[in-house]
Amino acid sequence: MASIVSPAGFISCGGLNRSSGRSTTTFGTQLAYPLSSSFGGGCSRRLKPAVVVVRAEAQPINPEIRKAEEKVVDTVLVPELSKPLTAYCRCWRSGTFPLCDGSHVKHNKATGDNVGPLLVKKQ
């Protein structure tokens, strides 16, 4: 499981710009409301930093279908195609989506899944 920690805001209460009525955070973001009215007349203390933790868990895309096969690949024959073979992504991780770039191999190793491309062949 991977975790990503990202700062979500750290407000410097003394950063109120009196001419514009906007406050500035330590990240340089302008807030649209004046801190003086929101925090009781121009607070003199710093707020604690807010942190967002995101956990990404790799889960199989194909939890039940044809699990006895090492990799599920289906082929469709179509007579009216310009290319003899086209591979379409079914893992949703391809950098060239909707075309397959082989990203399913890394996904299958990480999750134990068996998803593979859809191959469309010229008949």
From TrEMBL:
Residues of the Iron-binding zinc finger CDGSH type domain: 71-110
GO terms for cellular component: mitochondrial outer membrane
UniProt record, GO biological process: regulation of autophagy
Source domain of life: Eukaryota
UniProt keyword annotations, A-Z: 2Fe-2S, Iron, Iron-sulfur, Metal-binding
Any one GO molecular-function label of the UniProt entry: 2 iron, 2 sulfur cluster binding
Cofactor(s) of this protein: [2Fe-2S] cluster
Name by which UniProt lists this protein: CDGSH iron-sulfur domain-containing protein NEET-like
